[in-house]
Amino acid sequence: MFVIVVYDFNEKRVAKALKICRKYLHWVQNSVFEGEISQANYVKLKAELSRLIDPEEDSVVFYIFRTKRYSKREEMGLKKGGDENIL
Amino acid sequence: MFVIVVYDFNEKRVAKALKICRKYLHWVQNSVFEGEISQANYVKLKAELSRLIDPEEDSVVFYIFRTKRYSKREEMGLKKGGDENIL
């Protein structure tokens, strides 16, 4: 399956959140990640984030798609995704 | 078409960015918006955001889908989307 993950973590935890997400997904920009992921790894990703998250301060949204790809991605402004988003 | 928009604006401009996106889309959480949008309105949305954005500081990612809906959305932690995200 294909997922898009968007998070908003307090700066105390954001570096760890980035590290966790990069283990499983491609870093698109800022707090946005995407990629093909197995169901097993998706469960692991959520488990790792749920151990990190402070539910009073942080939030994560997961979009799960059966189809492999969105039609199109467009970007505006600053790019922070690094080289790894060139697939 | 169906779009997901994720932005990261400097706090000086974030209130305006929120206002622009809410004109066209549903506020999901934090900096995440989604919704059905016509091609004409999508062009307007991008034009308004491009007038606001400081490309040295801010960024926006647009995911465009031909199909009406993602398979599933899951959330973790804080919800900031307000009532309007109950479709």
From TrEMBL, chains A, B:
<keyword id="KW-0378">Hydrolase</keyword>
<keyword id="KW-0460">Magnesium</keyword>
<keyword id="KW-0255">Endonuclease</keyword>
<keyword id="KW-0540">Nuclease</keyword>
<dbReference type="InterPro" id="IPR021127">
    <property type="entry name" value="CRISPR_associated_Cas2"/>
</dbReference>
<dbReference type="Pfam" id="PF09827">
    <property type="entry name" value="CRISPR_Cas2"/>
</dbReference>
<dbReference type="GO" id="GO:0004521">
    <property type="term" value="F:RNA endonuclease activity"/>
</dbReference>
<dbReference type="InterPro" id="IPR019199">
    <property type="entry name" value="Virulence_VapD/CRISPR_Cas2"/>
</dbReference>
<dbReference type="GO" id="GO:0046872">
    <property type="term" value="F:metal ion binding"/>
</dbReference>
<comment type="subunit">
    <text>Homodimer, forms a heterotetramer with a Cas1 homodimer.</text>
</comment>
<dbReference type="GO" id="GO:0016787">
    <property type="term" value="F:hydrolase activity"/>
</dbReference>
<feature type="binding site">
    <location>
        <position position="8"/>
    </location>
    <ligand>
        <name>Mg(2+)</name>
    </ligand>
</feature>
<dbReference type="GO" id="GO:0043571">
    <property type="term" value="P:maintenance of CRISPR repeat elements"/>
</dbReference>
<keyword id="KW-0051">Antiviral defense</keyword>
<dbReference type="GO" id="GO:0051607">
    <property type="term" value="P:defense response to virus"/>
</dbReference>
<protein>
    <recommendedName>
        <fullName>CRISPR-associated endoribonuclease Cas2</fullName>
        <ecNumber>3.1.-.-</ecNumber>
    </recommendedName>
</protein>
<comment type="function">
    <text>CRISPR (clustered regularly interspaced short palindromic repeat), is an adaptive immune system that provides protection against mobile genetic elements (viruses, transposable elements and conjugative plasmids). CRISPR clusters contain sequences complementary to antecedent mobile elements and target invading nucleic acids. CRISPR clusters are transcribed and processed into CRISPR RNA (crRNA). Functions as a ssRNA-specific endoribonuclease. Involved in the integration of spacer DNA into the CRISPR cassette.</text>
</comment>
<comment type="similarity">
    <text>Belongs to the CRISPR-associated endoribonuclease Cas2 protein family.</text>
</comment>
<keyword id="KW-0479">Metal-binding</keyword>
